[in-house]
Design a protein that fits this description.
elongated, mainly alpha
């Protein structure tokens, strides 16, 4: 089994990507954008946050 860990700089970049995707999700929601944009930004944000939350740091 592979030893899957994140370094602190990589975890920080993933967290920043999650924040930006969450911001875009909220903006698309307020502007009543097409639903595919909500799904895209929402899934990016959720995936990034789950990765940072469940993959241990080195």
């Amino acid at each position: 089994m592979a030893n899957l860990t994140l370094s602190p700089p990589v975890a920080t970049l993933i967290f920043v990507a999650a924040c930006l995707a969450g911001y875009r999700y909220r903006r698309a929601w307020k502007e009543e954008a097409p639903s595919w944009q909500l799904w895209l930004f929402g899934l990016i944000a959720v995936t990034c946050l789950l990765a940072v939350g469940f993959i241990p740091l080195t």
